[in-house]
Amino acid sequence: MEAARGFFIPTLTSDGAFWTTVVAILGTTISPYLFFWQASQEVEDIRAVAERKPLVKAPKQGPDALERIRIDTYFGMAVSNVVALAIIVTTAATLHVSGVVDVQTSSQAAEALRPVAGTFAFALFALGIIGTGLLAVPVLAGSAAYAVAEARRWPLGLARRPKQAKAFYATLTLATMIGVVINFSPINPIKALFWSAVINGMVAVPVMVTMMHMTANPKIMGKFPVHDGLRLVGWISTGVMAAAAIAMVVTALI
């Protein structure tokens, strides 16, 4: 009951740590790298399928393409948010109620779960961490490679062979190796993940403002500018992200 009440009626405080956590959660939900990855992947898919054309040049393909993107986005958002909510609730119901509030590593979290929730929970958590790593490393490294390659105007895309996009694949490899090296450094991985999420939450605000202006510009969108209802949702989301970031800064300075 307490979890359900907290979900529908959140309790806001003036504590700086609270707002920093809010920004971190928003930063993992709407991460700037997703904008680069999803946009680049869509362009790559268009190039890979001969029948598909950029919508600006082939507006008749618009309804089918937008419906496909809409379903993909809704499904991905639903699954990711359900998983995130499950992680938060499970952590609160196991580690937090048992007084484990300072977790330094994922192995420490797994060991803390063993006496609280049993061996099965320990094994399940361990498998989840491994699976998350196998998913997150290529996604984050790939997003970095796409962003850098686009900024430098290098040939890019996983559909290309390494010889056709040497700089792109070199960036992807370098990003992966940096992630591996961090594991052997004194950097606290849990804190690194947390603060990278906070940075994502801060950076997402100007990126979202720019994106909202671009999607309403007919010169960029052609016949497909974002309609008023979706624009309203987008600006509300941008406003919430900005408000959380401002609250974090203000409470940290008080």
Describe this structure in words.
It is a single chain. The longest helix is centred in the first third of the chain and has 35 residues, at 62-96. α2 (16-29) runs antiparallel to α10 and α8 crosses α10 (228-253). The radius of gyration is 21 Å and the shape is globular. It is an all-alpha fold. It has a domain at 13-99 and 189-254. The chain has helices at residues 2-8, 16-29, 32-48, 62-96, 106-117, 119-152, 166-183, 189-215, 218-221, 228-253. The relative contact order is 0.13. 76% of the residues lie in helices and 0% in strands.
What attributes characterize this protein structure?
single chain; 254 residues; mainly alpha
Topology:
Layout: H1 2-8, H2 16-29, H3 32-48, H4 62-96, H5 106-117, H6 119-152, H7 166-183, H8 189-215, H9 218-221, H10 228-253
Helix pairs in contact: 2-8, 2-10, 3-6, 5-6, 6-7, 8-10
